[in-house]
Structures are given as structure tokens and as C-alpha cells.
């Protein structure tokens, strides 16, 4: 069985979607699972993905959560581990991608892993170690303005080396396409073993790890990489790498639409989400979160938004309502000394609204932003997700149980999806 851990909730559904497409019977557990919690028993699944919330928390806490998830996956019988992070390598010089990679390699006792953030279907490619977003170097893309993990460098080996204790090596596209990747990896592994022959006990504990950043520009490249790394106990990357894996061929699940009102909750400030919000504003009732009002009277502000949404649904039950945090980057205001950060207020407000909306009969939600999605599914007390129909690259509908209520959820990474996603995704459900 393949065991995977994702650093946020949208990343988990993104990865699960890719695995389902490759024929894996896949279960997504929200948080670290127990055998009792999984309704699909581990022996019936080809892959289990644990959705964590480790992308932007303190590095030591991220490492601890990842190690706990790894232990759970191994107890369930996972023989191979997939460490999934964002395809734009969202992190800081302190982590968290590097520290988590180091910890997993150490716990698995492996001396070699690969780093493959490429996701060509979503416009993310790596050439000569440089990460591109729709052809633009990462450091020049809108990700340079990300409020939590501003990415101002495009060089993946350099980004990783700043936060990892591993030896970082880069393998180019020529090696991948010539069929020489497996040989290159074996050579690196052998060199590592020889150079550390006097410290074999340390090596077996994973204290010396080689992390190989591998170029990929197409899905065919990912298939080649997946085949060349089939014997590695640990692989790391974006969800694109999963598109190169070969599963047992299980058919995908088709989800039915559950009746009731619809809502879009957008906490992301990414350029893609802002474009989707701008498109949706012309088509559905919308309100932007008033951070000042939330600071002054949180309960009153949330109650007002609930009342507004219910009124809109009464007027037209088929039309979704949109509540969003950021329409323009100028909407992002730093907190004053002693104030709760705006990002925390956004998560608290949108997760509370998700619960309030569900109580009011809402059974279909689109949620934009990894941190927001994590807060929402936690507020809804959703423990597992069944992955259904894809909507766009890295975007899929899922179904979960929220306190006995079956809900359709689309948990969207901020950077993913076409402009009309918030208005058009509903039609994909059966």
C-alpha cells in the first residue's frame, strides 16, 4: 500500500485525485487516522492520504505531526511513503519542506530520495533546477507576493539546501529523457554508501541523505521518474508525480449532487483565486469579510453574514453565495501591535460560517485556500473524504460526512483552477 502525507488539506485532495486517476483506491483521512476511524479499511485501499496542516506552522511542530502520520501509515501497512508539498515549493528558509524530508528519511532509514515539485498540467515545471509557473520563473511569478510563504527564488536546489540537512543534487532533463535516471540514482546511492562506509550505522538511521531534485517538463517525464524511483521507500514532490505512478486500475467514483443551498468560501489571496472571485462577483451574491467588524464584534459580524446568506438562498435556492477575504492585494492589511492577525480572523470566520451554513441546510461548498480548507473541514468535523469527479488540474469534488450530513466539498488550492471555477464547478456533480 502507498502511504502519503500532505502538508495541507487541498494538497491531500489534489494528490488523491491524481492517485484515483491512476487507478488507486484512495482514502483521504483528515488528520492522523486510527483503524477505527477509517470506514474503508486499510486492506481495502491501495493508497491512504493523510491531510495535515503543516505547511506554515512552526517547523518542529510540522516535523512532529509528520512523524506521527508516518507511524500511522506504517501501522496500516504502507510499504512506500509519498511526502506531498505544494508544486510551487511553498516554504521559507526555515522550512517546512526540508525539515519534514529530513525527518521522514531518517525514520525510514533511507539514504536517497527525490524532489519533484513539477505538475505540468497545472503549469509547474522544473528545468535545470529552476521552477517555472506557466513559463514564468517562480521568483517572478505572483507567488513572490504570497503573504505567508513569499517565493522570491526559483532555484529548487538552493531553496531546499537552505532548509535541509541533506546533500542536495540536481538531475537534468537530458538524463530523464535519455533513460539514464535510474542509473544516475543508483550511482548516487552507491557513492553515498562508499563515502560513508565507516559510518554505516549512522547512514542506516538516515543521518546522511541525498535529496535529488529531478527536472520534469511533461507528464511523460513524470512517468519516467516514477518508474525509475519505484524501489525508493520515500518519494517527495507535488501531486504531479502521482500521475506517473501505476495503480491496480480501480475505476473512479462518481459523486451525486446533494440538494440544498450552495456556498463559496474563499480565504486565499492568490492571483488565481482573486481572478475567480472577480469572475464570480458578476454571477452570484457576494460579501467580502470586514476584518475591522470581525475585530470589533466577531459574533455579530458572523451572524450578519449568516442572515444575509439565508435571505439570498430564500430568494434563489439554486444560486451560490460567495464570501471572500481578498479581492485585491490592497485588501491585505497587516495587524497592529497586539491585534489578532487578519489571516487568523479569516480562518476563524470562514470555518464558523461553514458550520453555520451547514446548519442552515447548505450541502455543497467550494473552499479556496489550503489553510481555509483545513479550518473548514475541522469545523464541519469531516474525518474522511471520498474523492469524486475532477473539475480542473489539481481540483476535484469530494464527499464527506459532517455530523451525519453528507456534503459535497471542493477544497481548492489558492493557485489552481480556471477563472470560471466558482461558478461552473457545480455542473460537474451528477
UniProtKB/TrEMBL annotation:
Transmembrane segments: none annotated. It catalyses: 3-dehydro-L-erythronate + ATP = 3-dehydro-4-O-phospho-L-erythronate + ADP + H(+); 3-dehydro-D-erythronate + ATP = 3-dehydro-4-O-phospho-D-erythronate + ADP + H(+). Residues 2-244 form the Four-carbon acid sugar kinase N-terminal domain. Residues 263-421 form the Four-carbon acid sugar kinase nucleotide binding domain. Catalyzes the ATP-dependent phosphorylation of 3-oxo-tetronate to 3-oxo-tetronate 4-phosphate. It comes from Kineosporia mesophila. The keyword Nucleotide-binding applies. It holds the Pfam family NBD_C. GO terms for molecular function: kinase activity. This is 3-oxo-tetronate kinase. InterPro entries: 4-carb_acid_sugar_kinase_N (IPR010737), 4-carb_acid_sugar_kinase_N_sf (IPR037051), NBD_C (IPR031475), NBD_C_sf (IPR042213), OtnK (IPR050007). It is an enzyme of class 2 (transferase). It comes from the Bacteria. Belongs to the four-carbon acid sugar kinase family. Its EC number is 2.7.1.217. Keywords: ATP-binding, Carbohydrate metabolism, Kinase, Nucleotide-binding, Transferase.
Amino acid at each position: 500500500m502507498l502511504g502519503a502525507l500532505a502538508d495541507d488539506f487541498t494538497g491531500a485532495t489534489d494528490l488523491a485525485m491524481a492517485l484515483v486517476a491512476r487507478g488507486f483506491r484512495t482514502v483521504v483521512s483528515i488528520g492522523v487516522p486510527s483503524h477505527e476511524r477509517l470506514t474503508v479499511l486499510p486492506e481495502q485501499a491501495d493508497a491512504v492520504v493523510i491531510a495535515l496542516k503543516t505547511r506554515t506552522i512552526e517547523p518542529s511542530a510540522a516535523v512532529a505531526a509528520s512523524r506521527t502520520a508516518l507511524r500511522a501509515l506504517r501501522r496500516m501497512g504502507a510499504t512506500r511513503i509519498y511526502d506531498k508539498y505544494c508544486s510551487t515549493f511553498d516554504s521559507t528558509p526555515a522550512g517546512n519542506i526540508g525539515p519534514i524530508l529530513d525527518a521522514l528519511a531518517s525514520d525510514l532509514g533511507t539514504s536517497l530520495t527525490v524532489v519533484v515539485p513539477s505538475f505540468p498540467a497545472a503549469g509547474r515545471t522544473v528545468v535545470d533546477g529552476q521552477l517555472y509557473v506557466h513559463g514564468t520563473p517562480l521568483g517572478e511569478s505572483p507567488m513572490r507576493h504570497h503573504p505567508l510563504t513569499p517565493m522570491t527564488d526559483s532555484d529548487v536546489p538552493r531553496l531546499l539546501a537552505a532548509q535541509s540537512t541533506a546533500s542536495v543534487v540536481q538531475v537534468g532533463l537530458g538524463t530523464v529523457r535519455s533513460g539514464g535516471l535510474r542509473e544516475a540514482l543508483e550511482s548516487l546511492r552507491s557513492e553515498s554508501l562508499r563515502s560513508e562506509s565507516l559510518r554505516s550505522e549512522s547512514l542506516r538511521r538516515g543521518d546522511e541523505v541525498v535529496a535529488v531534485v529531478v527536472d520534469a517538463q511533461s507528464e511523460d517525464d513524470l512517468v519516467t521518474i516514477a518508474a525509475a524511483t519505484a524501489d525508493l521507500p520515500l518519494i517527495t514532490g507535488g501531486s504531479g508525480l502521482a500521475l506517473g505512478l501505476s495503480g491496480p486500475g480501480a475505476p473512479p467514483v462518481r459523486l451525486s449532487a446533494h440538494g440544498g443551498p450552495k456556498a463559496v468560501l474563499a480565504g486565499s489571496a492568490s492571483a488565481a483565486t482573486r481572478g475567480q472571485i472577480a469572475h464570480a462577483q458578476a454571477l452570484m451574491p457576494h460579501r467580502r469579510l470586514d476584518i475591522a467588524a470581525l475585530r470589533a464584534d466577531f459574533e455579530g459580524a458572523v451572524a450578519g453574514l449568516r442572515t444575509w446568506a439565508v435571505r439570498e438562498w430564500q430568494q434563489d435556492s439554486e444560486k451560490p453565495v460567495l464570501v471572500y477575504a481578498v479581492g485585491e492585494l490592497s485588501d491585505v492589511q497587516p495587524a497592529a501591535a497586539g491585534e489578532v492577525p487578519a489571516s487568523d480572523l479569516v480562518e476563524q470566520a470562514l470555518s464558523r460560517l461553514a458550520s453555520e451554513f451547514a446548519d442552515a441546510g447548505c450541502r455543497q461548498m467550494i473552499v479556496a485556500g489550503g489553510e481555509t480548507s483545513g479550518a473548514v473541514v475541522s469545523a464541519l468535523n469531516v474525518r474522511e473524504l471520498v474523492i469524486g469527479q475532477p473539475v480542473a488540474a489539481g481540483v476535484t469534488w469530494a464527499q464527506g460526512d459532517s455530523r451525519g450530513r453528507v456534503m459535497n466539498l471542493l477544497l481548492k488550492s489558492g493557485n489552481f483552477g480556471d477563472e470560471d471555477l466558482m461558478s461552473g464547478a457545480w455542473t460537474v456533480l451528477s
